[in-house]
Amino acid sequence: MDDTTAGTPLNDEPALPGFPAAAAPSLPYRVLARKYRPRTFDDLIGQEAMVRTLSNAFETGRIPQAWMLTGVRGVGKTTTARILARGLNYQKPDGAGAPTIHMPELGVHCEAIMESRHVDVLEMDAASHTGIDDVRQIIDGIRYSPVSARYKVYIIDEVHMLSEKAFNAFLKTLEEPPPHAKFIFATTEIRKVPVTILSRCQRFDLRRIEADKLVAHLGRICDEEGVRAEAEALAAIARAAEGSARDSLSLLDQAIAHGAGVVTPDTVRDMLGLADRTQVIDLFEAVMKGDVPAAFAGLRSQYDAGADPGVILSDLAAFSHVVTRLKLIPEAAKDPALSEIERVRGREFAEKLSVRTLSRTWQILLKGIPEIQASNRPIAAAEMVIVRLAYAADLPTPDEALRALKDGAPLPAGGGSPAPAVGPSGPATSGNMALATSQPMPQQRPQASSPQPTMRLRRFEDVVALAGEKREIVLKSQLERDVRLVRFEEGRIELSLTETGSRTIANDLTRALQQWTGERWMVALSSQEGQRTLHEKAVAAERERKEGAANHPLVQAVLAKFPGAQIVNVIERAEKPGEDGADAETEILGEADAADALETEADDDLD
User: Fold this and answer.
1) Alpha carbons 313 and 382: distance in angstroms, whole number
2) What is the pTM of this model?
3) If 327 and its partner were Cys, which of 301, 312, 350, 546 is the partner (CB 3.0–4.6 Å)?
4) Residue 486's CB: how many other CB atoms inside 10 A?
């Protein structure tokens, strides 16, 4: 299996600086994935860490006996193995040379190695040679010295497909091979390779090639081939290749043929069945507004143009990911793989949509795409996912719903936004995501406004409870477990820290209180020991409740009746109005009498 990344072509014409011109008409056509196969380490793209490690190893003479190259398809595993074999056997025509990664000119063995026809560099495809007999041939031949090269190199592709017996036969030879033998393994399924093999190899994980590097590489190849290609079309090819240079070159080859030598976004979309990025963004906006008719029209328009419904929603999910990245990391807008419309409109959505909304959109799409792929009617399944998005993408979270019910307030239709106006064709615009819309918003009945009470924090426990209400879970946990209260007054708190406490908690709490209350609070760290933490107090109170319950006669009777039973939790019963201590005691006695009666009845049944 050939893996391709970048590099100079492998043609019969004389080598020229950089990439050569297109092949002469008299020569058979060579696909781009083979024509631009790398021939040196300098030609590899996206694998700088591996190249640096190999360079240092060759310069210091620390060359291992075996390498394991792993990664997804098309990142350059087999190509790297051949370049590595060339570097191990590099020798100039005058006889000089040593193992190196710097090969400015062709050596004595270079051409034969790169064309996979050198007698001392043996390539084996483990997918078709899986048995122990194939490995025995390698073991029998490894004892003989190389014919002409410095090392005898064995390249085994898809090594994970060897049988268990074949792997076991390799162990001894792989651990102590002759000094003239080197092994290079390549695999896409590293988890299927036994750990006994991995422990004897130096492992390199070849990374997926980043989209911007792929776009730049494809652009250089188009220039050399004399092909006019638009940047947006190359970006679409790079996205479809998913980090594989060979896939990107194969797609570029197909796009050149599809567009008769001109690569445009339209030709790439038609070729791959992709959706128009502009229409995908328009669909995203319609869904975020809750405009179901417009969303259906946009989806149907792309479907009629030949786009697959599953691909449309996959692009919709990809754009929601882009918006999320732009919201959390504004520098992501500099990604050259993004088109200008994605960059501009993505920023607009990032300013208006919350992370919770984007996260829920992603989850709904992620669950809906497999439904479309498994459905007999993909377009109908896609429309139902769109409906789900429009109506549920910004529903309140469970804690918000509980808080609204507790306060007696009506549940928001979309995370606090007004409910949609329903017409004959559905909701005209729900405003789910608080986006500006050209359609008029539904008129709401004015509600009487009640003055907001002034927030008063009279105890440290009130501060911790407020942190929980504001969903500051990390801060709330720190206040409960890492803080000892020294002094508390309205507007001023003195704290001491436990051994695990963070010294930034004072500044964090100061900013949070000012944001929550609108007043300035002073939070200071003290050298005094302070009280126990709230967590310690809660643990002590729980222990006291369990000890008190364990001393109760009824509980003791139950524990005695059921050996090994434990008190898991103690729930204090709220005292009813008009109930005094005597009533409570009588109820306990009544429960004890009932327990005794049940015990007697059970004994009678046994008799």
Assistant:
1) 7
2) 0.53
3) 350
4) 17
Higher pLDDT, 430 or 34: 34
CATH number of 460-535: 3.30.300
Show the CA angle centred on residue 108, arms to residues 106 and 109, nearest 5°: 95
595 vs 598: CA distance, rounded Å: 5
DSSP string, 147-175: SSSSSEEEEEETGGGS-HHHHHHHHHHHH
What tokens does 476 get?
């709330």
249 sits in which H/E element:
helix 245-258
- Residue 156's DSSP bridge partners are 124, 185
Distance of alpha carbon 320 from alpha carbon 369, whole angstroms: 14
Better pLDDT: 67 or 243: 67
Tokens at residue 411, please?
Answer: 């549940």
The whole-angstrom separation of Cα 160 and Cα 77 is 14
Topology at the third CATH level for domain 277-392 = Zinc Finger, Delta Prime; domain 3 (1.20.272)
Supply the DSSP string of 258-311, one letter for each residue: HTTTEE-HHHHHHHHTPPPHHHHHHHHHHHHHT-HHHHHHHHHHHHHTT--HHH
Average of per-residue pLDDT values in the chain: 78
Task: Supply 131's token pair.
Answer: 């048995």
Domain boundaries, the chain: 38-205, 277-392, 460-535, 552-573+582-606
Selected from 3.30.365.10, 3.20.20.140, 3.40.50.300, 3.40.50.10300, the CATH number assigned to the domain covering 38-205 reads 3.40.50.300
Bridge partner list, 484: 496
Tens digit of each residue's pLDDT (9 = 90 or more) over 196-212 = 999 999 999 888 888 88
* Higher-scoring residue by pLDDT: 541, 432: 541
d(CA 434, CA 426): 18
